[in-house]
Sequence to fold (291 residues):
Amino acid sequence: MRPCHVVEIITPKKYVLNGLWFGPQKPKQVIIFIHGLTGSAFSARNITDALRDSQTAVITFNNRGSEHISEFKQKRGKKSVWKRGGGGHEIFTECDDDIQGAVSFARRAGVKNIYLAGHSTGCQKAVYWASKNNGGRGVKGLILFGPLSDYAIALEQDRNGKLAKSVAYARKLVRAGKRHKLMPRNLEPWFVCDAQRFLSLYTPDSAEEIFTYAQPKKNPRALHFVRTPTLVVLAGNEEHTKRPAKEIAAWFEKHTRSRRFKSVIVPRVGHGFKGGEKIVAKSIRAFIKGI
Fold:
């Protein structure tokens, strides 16, 4: 069993997000964990366990991309309304509001040293938030576990031009005012989602396409805005891409504008970093100590 406290995060736009607080109640620092696509506050337990210690608390929470299809409550005065959400219907740019809610919650709890740790799609969200908030002002650093481009993955998996056909169909739905209609399975082999999320995940110019290593000439503007210290942790046996981890690490080295940057490749582990927890924990502690 893992002892924890249940927390309720209210975002600036009054969305109610449920979360868990692991570790000491009065820590030296807190790490806010941002789960990946269709994840939840219970995701990647091995990673979050590696993050917490006697001086470090970890907050996990359901952002609006949790699970495949879900609903979230938004407070409107004395009343509340429920909005459609989940990874399949999430509007990516709303992650800024979700993360700010978690950061403000940690600050109100009296913690001054706050870090953001994103896993998978949570990495894009952490960088996007930092790009919209003075390069990450308000947090001490970013920790990115498995930062991959969904667009790059789709290009690798594309067969017989199916990606282009799917994109065209999704654009047609959006133009018809049906942006939240689910994509048909015969066109959409990568992930069950609506038209607007499909375009967000799998087109080269979307706000979500932050790690642009599949587009050598593209300027990764969101990443360039990030100034806070950043740690990138990559899986040596990443199963979601054929691209070598060393190549992705080199891309980050080339494009980061962070005041302090470090990349670590954990050998012989997949996207979930199972089996590499000791290396992960050691790398994080060294990163925090060096800031």
Observations:
- The first helix runs from residue 45 to 51.
- The longest strand covers residues 15-22.
- The chain is about 30% helix and 20% strand.
